[in-house]
Specification:
The protein is about 15% helix and about 35% strand. By secondary structure, the protein is an alpha+beta fold. The strands form six sheets. An eight-stranded antiparallel sheet has the order 7-6-10-11-12-9-8-20. It has a seven-stranded antiparallel sheet with strand order 22-23-24-27-30-31-32, sandwiched between helices. It has a six-stranded antiparallel barrel with strand order 14-15-16-19-18-17.
């Protein structure tokens, strides 16, 4: 995806996101400013490596004539969190792409199709033509819908319940035979330009026309990411993400007028320049921008929903797209109806019979059960080699349980693997990159990635990918696993193999955050200040369970001035009382050290923290 140096720049640029959100709207009131966002500064027509606050304007004009256009001079820089950030001013204007011009040749994309598929013509009966983005599913009913733009499915003259036709009326005006469904939900605003409609009387396929891929995951665009789309007018085109966290001002006409839309910007991929020089054109609205893999082929990860391109008066070629996370939250939709057969067959989850003794999953207290996300009878969410119970209020797992086959570990690169939302779980119950951008909070795995990479190569690759779902991720301070204690927390699993004679080199582990009502809030999300882990193994045919607790100092969250991390060996009963988790009786019986701790009644803050592996009692 993005090059390494570009990703480093991204970490800095995300710190500016709050500036765009809080102050961007005031600058868009200027009639000459068409958008504000974060991008690389342009000098002498070439992109530099300097991150800047980028403004686009309808016209670049001399300072002495600014007043004649009722516009003001854009500052040369802003001071944000004590750092001077340059501005950049580019002449560019955007327009929603649904003003169709006459074309001589009729492509397959503009004909009536059954089954329908992403990438073909569609529209409200009162609109001209746009593009089917993808097939999506209602979060509750799991009914399939088609996703496109508000201005494709509704427009200034439309309303909920309107007829949707395929192809759009501009491509074929035989409304009666082209009826496809009805407009169900729509939104136009900062969350995006988006809408969904039913599918009635026709079949559908999810593979994108001419790309032969099906998107089933959501990603978040970063500067320099390469993307590809398949649209009604320009077909397949290739782009590069040039600005992120942008607010664009678009004139939708009629009673709607100008609206501010949250988005990111795409320029032409110079390695894949389209024949006509257009990355998008009128009628492409509603198509999907999809991330490209390192080999240049389209992935299965949705980058954004295309909704506008540069206007005819702009000197350069650009497109803009809505962030899928915002769109899917607003419309209450997901990309998958149910688990795929491949994922069902591989996602056996935590194996309770992995060791020679049966190890059952933890239970929750009644109060915790009320906060648990439940999509099936048990509420347990299964992945490849691990399972978890999700707290839908805190949006992090109560616990994660995973199996480690120490004698069958594979080495798999994490290069190009993205942190992504689980498409089978509503996004509002997951915490994504909005928490981690531009600060020293790491996206920390609960089930350690390296622990899951075992089995055959296909299994290990699937486990690697599953480990990056945000449901397995919690906010952990920078150096959480590589702390001043030599990275003890991140290496507890390695320590048990080094210091004990583990039967069959197999270990089962449970872990998770400690939730407290007084946890510090950051970006409207409460950050756990402690984490726990229980390591279960068999030694000399005897079941053993060892509990650990790690605390991270979050008292100075805003400046991240940390005290050293502290790790303690604790009783499983202590973890239960702190977390509202109920471990199986056989595990508590196997916790010999925990029994000693409880009998001696030594408070946590009076105990000696673990400094080295030698301090751990594995007996």
């Amino acid at each position: 995806m993005a090059k390494k140096n570009e990703k480093n720049d991204l970490n800095e640029s995300r710190a500016l996101k709050n500036f765009i959100r809080t102050r961007g709207a005031e600058y868009l009131k200027d009639p000459n400013i068409s958008s504000i966002g974060i991008g690389y500064k342009i000098k002498d027509g070439k992109r530099t490596d300097e991150i800047a606050i980028q403004f686009t304007v309808d016209q670049k004009i001399r300072p002495e004539v600014l007043a004649t256009l009722k516009t003001t001079l854009i500052p040369e820089s802003f001071t944000i969190d004590g750092k001077k950030i340059s501005t950049d001013v580019i002449q560019r204007k955007f327009a929603a792409e649904y003003k169709i011009v006459t074309e001589m040749q009729i492509s397959e994309r503009k004909k009536r199709m059954d089954p329908i598929m992403p990438g073909i013509s569609v529209a409200n009966v009162k609109v001209t033509a746009g593009t089917i983005g993808c097939i999506v599913y209602d979060n509750e009913s799991r009914i399939p819908y088609i996703l496109s733009n508000w201005h494709v499915f509704q427009g200034p003259e439309g309303s909920i319940g309107d007829e949707i036709v395929q192809p759009g009326p501009f491509d074929d005006n035989r409304i009666e035979i082209n009826k496809l469904g009805k407009l169900v939900r729509s939104h136009l605003g900062h969350a995006g330009d988006c809408a969904i409609a039913t599918i009635e009387g026709r079949e559908f396929v999810s593979n994108v026309m001419d790309l032969e891929v099906k998107v089933d995951e959501i990603g978040e665009a970063e500067l320099g990411d390469k993307v590809i789309k398949s649209g009604r007018t320009t077909g397949v085109t290739h782009g590069v993400v040039t600005r992120i966290d942008t607010i664009a001002k678009i004139d939708y006409g009629g009673s709607i007028g100008e609206q501010e839309i949250g988005c990111f910007e795409i320029g032409i991929d110079q390695d894949k320049i389209p024949e006509n020089g257009e990355v998008s054109m009128d009628g492409d609205s509603g198509s999907m921008w999809i991330f490209k893999n390192d080999d240049g082929k389209p992935s299965n990860i949705l980058a954004g929903l295309h909704f506008a391109g540069e206007s005819s008066t702009s000197p350069t070629e650009y497109a803009i797209a809505c962030y899928p996370k915002s769109v899917f939250e607003k419309l209450q939709i997901s990309l998958t109806k149910s688990l795929t057969k491949e994922r069902e067959s591989m996602m056996a989850g935590f194996s309770q019979n992995f060791l020679s003794f049966q190890v059952n999953l933890p239970d929750l207290t009644d109060s915790n059960k009320q906060q648990m996300f439940v999509s099936n009878q048990s509420g347990i969410i299964n992945y490849t080699h691990f399972s978890l119970a999700l707290n839908k209020i805190r949006r992090f797992p109560f616990w994660v349980g995973w199996n480690v086959d120490g004698g069958n570990i594979k080495k798999i690169s994490r290069k190009g693997t993205r942190f992504i939302y689980d498409p089978n779980i509503p996004i509002e119950f997951q915490v994504g990159d909005e928490l981690y951008a531009g600060n020293k909070l790491d996206r920390g795995h609960i089930a350690r990635r390296a622990d899951l990479l075992w089995g055959n190569l296909q299994e290990a690759n699937k486990a690697n990918k599953d480990s990056f779902f945000f449901t397995n991720i919690t906010p952990q301070m920078e150096n959480f696993n590589q702390s001043q204690k030599g990275g003890l927390w991140g290496k507890l699993e390695d320590a048990v193999f080094e210091d004990t004679d583990v039967d069959d080199l197999k270990v089962s582990i449970f872990g998770g955050p400690v939730f407290r009502d007084d946890d510090r809030q950051f970006r409207q999300i409460k950050i756990p200040r402690a984490f726990w882990k229980v390591i279960v193994f068999v030694e000399n045919q005897k079941l053993k369970a060892k509990g650990f607790l790690l605390t991270q100092d979050l008292d100075e969250l805003k400046v991240f001035d940390l005290d050293p991390f502290k790790i303690y060996q604790v009783a499983l009963g202590e973890i239960e009382s702190r977390c509202g988790i109920i471990f199986p009786d056989e595990l508590k019986a196997a916790d010999s050290v925990g029994k000693q701790i409880i009998s001696q009644k030594i408070l946590l803050d009076k105990r000696k923290p673990i400094e080295t592996f030698a301090d751990i009692d594995w007996s």
